[in-house]
């Protein structure tokens, strides 16, 4: 594992978490006067998904830190050798950068409607412009592409596990949000759903 890749992956996820989660949360919280992080903490099925989301993100972040500190020991473990190709690493890095830009732009387009989780206490605007003209869930799409890029640049069984877990959790979360959006926006959401695909 090259020094550039170790540093890139660590800095990438630090920036991703700082800007796409904490930064966006801070900006939206200042605008709407409440915390946009509304993932539940109870023992319901939705609460369990929120818990797994947090654990997955924490595990991913810790893995990148450990890779940076102990690259020579950790990188060879569970390496998928036939995918450890230089061109795939470059493609993976490109996808990670592209997805980061995509997520930030989607958050800007979402404006004050952006939430981490389902906000049942507020009526948010249904966003259908910007990147939302091409995907009903551009932020989740960007997160999946980011995980794909991460796996391509670092093809280990652990990064593959994060990719699979991420996709499963995102797909469940999307469907939970669709039920909520249908209840909140009715025919407007049905029309939007018929025009725009779930991801791309």
SSE layout and pairings?
Elements: H1 3-32, H2 45-69, H3 71-74, H4 86-110, H5 138-153, H6 157-185, H7 187-195
Helix pairs in contact: 1-2, 1-4, 2-6, 4-5, 5-6, 6-7
List key phrases describing it:
Four Helix Bundle (Hemerythrin (Met), subunit A); 200 residues; 69% helix
Mean pLDDT: 93
**CATH class descriptor:** Mainly Alpha
Q: What is the H/E order?
A: HHHHHHH
Approximately how much helix is present in the residues?
55-70%
Multimer state: single chain
Percent strand:
under 5%
Task: Tell me what you see in this structure.
This protein has 200 residues and is an all-alpha fold. It has a single domain, classed as Up-down Bundle (Four Helix Bundle (Hemerythrin (Met), subunit A)). The chain contains seven helices and no strands. It is elongated.
